[in-house]
Amino acid sequence: MRASGNRWGRVRLVAVIASISLGLPVLNSGTVAVADATTSVDDRSVAVPTAWKVYTGLTPAQVSSTVLTPGYRLTEIHADQPTNPTTYTVRAVNNAGAYAVSGWWWYYGKTTAQINSLLGSNNARLISLDGYNTSAGARYAVVMVSNAGPAAKSWHWWVSTTTSFITSHLNSDVDRIIDLGEFAIGSTRYFTAVTIHNTTPDNKGWYWYTNRTTAQVQSLLSTNHARIVDIEAVGNGNWDVVMQTDGIGFNLWYVGRPSAAALLAIANQTGTRLTAIQRYASGSSTLYAGIFVNNLTTQSATMRDLQWGSLGSFNKWGFYSKQVGGPVLTSLQSSVQFEPASAIKVVSHLYLHMRMQNNSVNMASAINYPYRASDPNNKDICPATGDPLHTTTVENADNKMMTVSDNRMTRAIKDAYGYSNILAVANILGMSRTSFPNTLGCLTYGTYNLTTLADLGRLYESVAAGTSIAGAARTHFYANMLNFNNYSPAKTAFCNVATAEGNDLGKSGGTITAFCNAMEWAAKGGSYTLTLSGVRHIWRSNASRLALPFKSPPTSGPITLQEYVYGDYVHDVIATVAQENSINNGRTLAAAEQFRAQIRAAMATW
Hints:
This protein has helices spanning 60-67, 112-122, 163-173, 214-224, 260-270, 298-311, 345-357, 394-403, 407-417, 419-428, 453-464, 471-479, 488-504, 509-518, 577-593, 596-603; strands at 52-58, 72-79, 88-94, 104-110, 124-134, 137-146, 155-161, 175-185, 188-197, 206-212, 227-233, 239-244, 251-257, 272-282, 285-294, 316-323, 328-332, 366-370, 389-393, 482-483, 520-532, 535-551, 559-574. The strands form 7 sheets. The protein has a 6-stranded antiparallel β-sheet with strand order 17-16-23-22-21-20, sandwiched between helices. Strands 1-3-2 form a 3-stranded antiparallel β-sheet. The protein is an alpha+beta fold and 606 residues long. It has 2 domains: 52-295, no CATH class; 316-603, Beta-lactamase. Strand 5 and strand 6 (137-146) form a beta hairpin. Helix 7 packs antiparallel against helix 12.
């Protein structure tokens, strides 16, 4: 069935049994294309960050009320049951920016004739097509978008047909598949396909295969240097897939996940967006497969990529950076709670300096700390109630808490001033997801102190901006922490970036050295290691302040420090010592690398 005009759709019903192929010949346009800048074709080849949603098991009414909140549109729909479905699995994106379309519609329970009529009345084309069986025969759930004006495309759609039929028309129509499916009526399996004319500006190198094992799909991805754009469960553990060779960058695919929530967790942890979701039966279980593409800004993606190789999808980790008084620069899982270990000591540190500022604490006054005679010099002990007490000064306790992370001194400050009073500082600063009732150095698996990178960022930003402390108290706050004066590895890491950018800008060695010496930094990290049943678990975190020197006017003006706050964490990651070394190398490299653009901008003013 064919509509008039150059831009048209076709539906073909083939009354033959559709055999399940062991694999089709490769169809490849021979063109290596780049990622799409807009959803001119569909959203599967766009990696511009956007808001998105995915849901499963929703009735049509729930789709309308839960998914289609203002600003969102559907991009994919699948019936949850192979016959007479009542619920659906759907994807949606924010209908704005790169993902904006002028018109879109979704329907379910429709015949091919009804869909053809709707396509005509809406002047639309399909971007998602799912077939299923009902007591009345084959029915379809679809998503369509406007096919008018600059968005108009030449395209086709096919239902209840065979792979050989699709192949012949792909060749004759010079099309590529953007949505592939199959479904059963009795013992007969039928294929569906939505295709787009594979010519400029929409041409891409591409392949499609049916009934391939997971291992075969992975091998083909490697051989073809491709990524999956659509996936369909065959029903025997195998897959139908469509691949493309576009340069979309970071992308993933996973099968066998226990829930849609598990796919969402992968997306959140990797900073990606689901571009295809497949719900399928495996024995008595319902499982999920998903395709993911990057959904981070360039700067955040660089941070993710530096740590991906050692941390991956299934560990819990994140990072965060923000310009003080300005925008968030990088973020991944920055609002997720984690065990910060000693990094949380900065709250007690700020508490003391707020009191120092209002003259309610004398840093030279005495304070008692737990002293264990059997291990008198071990700063890392779990300082137990009942240990005998020794005396030091508040100044020494604070310095050792922050520079060598002495757990005994931390316990001393907490006991002297009270946990509720110290926590009140966090509450005043809006650190609503922070609590640390447990004694530092005494980790019990599963019972954690908690914070988020965004919460820690609020504290560091309050100090940098002078809203919590200022003047002499702030200077002392930074001096009693790890800083460039007492921790050279951090200065080396940042100066390496500054040197590279300075050389690229043609700055002299003396200028680069002066720039490095004018940078400022302060930080508090934390770490725990537990071996449980022979398995090594690690917790690592860091929160920091960085100040970059800008000259205004350039070259001749005085230095103005632009402040930034940042941090990262790994939470309960299973790692050998060698694996941890790899993780830490990635963390160290990423810490400085995330500010490369800012360091270059500052260096350019010298």
